[in-house]
Amino acid sequence: MIAPLSKTNSGELASCPDRSGANGSVASTSTHNGVVDDFSLGYRVLFWAIALGLGLLRALDSRFSASGDGRSCIEMGDAYLRRDTTGVVCIPG
Amino acid sequence: MIVLPKHFFKLPLYWESTSVHLVNFAIYVFGLCSLEFFVNGLIHRRDPSDFPDDLESLHAWAQRLIGYALFLYSSLSWLSADIVTPDLCVEGIFLLIAGVIIRIQSAGATWANSAILGLLLGVGYLTKVVLFPLALVFFLASAFAPGNPRKSIVRPR
C-alpha cells in the first residue's frame, strides 16, 4: 500500500536544509547515500501501475493500426528474416 | 525484433498488427525500466552533503517526479506507443546510456561500466543511426564525467 505522508528525517542533511523536505510534503523510506527525501516504494509502484495501464491501453486501442513508417519497419523486419539484403536497405519516412 | 513473434508463433496475417503493437508495448516497459535505472543513478549519484551551501539542488522526490512526468509525456504523446517506430527503443537505450555515464561520474570508470557503455552504444546504433553521431558526444561525456579525464581511462591491473 502507499505509505502515508510524513515528515522526513533531516538529521543527516543538516548542512543542506533545502533538501530535507522539512515541509513534510513527501515521505520517504530510502536512506541510500543519505537520500531521505525520495519517493516511498508505494508511490513508485503507483506510478508503474499507471504507466503500464496507460501504455497497455494505448497499445490495445491501436492494435489494428499502423503508420507508414510502421509498415516500412515491418517489411524491413520480414526482409531481414528472409535474408533479403536488398529489402533490408530501406529508409522509412 | 517487431516481426519475431509473427515468425516464431506462425501467426496469421490477422494477428500481425496486434503482435507488433505488443512488442512495442514490451519496448515501452523496457523504457520504464531504463527510466528507473537513470533516475536512481541521478538521485544517488553523490552524498547530498557534498553540495555546497549556496548550491540548491532539487529534492530527490522532485527529480523523480519530473523524470516520471517527462517520460509519460514523451512516451505516450510524442513517441506514442501506437506508432511502430524504433523511437521508444532509442529512448530506453538513451536513458540507459545516461544512467551508465552518471555511474561513471560517481564511481569512476571501471571495466564493467566501460564495456556496458560500449555495448549500449553499439546496440543503439543498430536501433537507429542517429545514435552513431551521438556516440561521440557520449564518449566525451563519459571521459569528462569523473572530473579528471585521466580517471576515466581504465588501465589493466
N-end to C-end Cα span of chain B: 39 Å
Domain count of chain B: the total is 1
What is the rounded Rg of chain A?
Answer: 24 Å
Cα distance, first to last residue of chain A? 46 Å
Radius of gyration computed on alpha carbons of chain B: 18 Å
Helix fraction of chain A, binned, reads 40-55%
- Average pLDDT across residues of chain B? 81
Question: Number of domains in the coordinates of chain A?
Answer: 2
What's the β-strand tally of chain A?
A: 0
Largest sheet of chain B: none
What does this structure look like?
The complex is a heterodimer of chains A (93) and B (157). Chain A is built from three helices and no strands. Chain A has helices at residues 41-61, 68-81, 85-88. The relative contact order of chain A is 0.11. Chain A has two domains: 1-62, no CATH class; 64-93, no CATH class. By secondary structure, chain B is mainly α. Chain B is built from six helices and no strands. Chain B has helices at 4-8, 16-43, 60-79, 87-107, 111-127, 131-144. Chain B is globular, with a radius of gyration of 18 Å. At the A-B interface, helix 1 and helix 2 of A face helix 2 and helix 3 of B.
What are the main properties of this structure?
heterodimer; A: 93 residues; mainly alpha; 2 domains; disordered N terminus; B: 157 residues; 6 helices
